[in-house]
Structure to design on (94 residues):
């Protein structure tokens, strides 16, 4: 006895397979539309004079938890200091 809605063809639950494929196709379509919307927002930001690279970096940092963000900043500062890319701090006595 087969379950209702699960017609078998060659050992495959056809209705379930079709449902999965339909859902994935719908989600892929939504993903494409959302991607287009995001590109439009970045184009708007650029048109208003904002630096899109900086906005993307901020978004990346906001996705991180505080510990991850601090670790990344520490490593970056360490590497930049090693390469002489950070200004030397002046003492307050001078």
């Amino acid at each position: 006895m087969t379950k209702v809605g699960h017609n078998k063809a060659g050992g495959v639950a056809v209705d379930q397979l079709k449902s999965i494929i339909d859902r994935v196709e719908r989600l892929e379509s939504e993903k494409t539309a959302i991607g287009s919307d995001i590109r439009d927002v970045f184009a708007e930001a650029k048109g208003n004079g904002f630096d899109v690279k900086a906005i993307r970096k901020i978004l990346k940092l906001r996705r991180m938890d505080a510990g991850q963000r601090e670790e990344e900043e520490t490593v970056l500062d360490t590497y930049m200091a090693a390469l002489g890319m950070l200004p030397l701090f002046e003492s307050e006595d001078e």
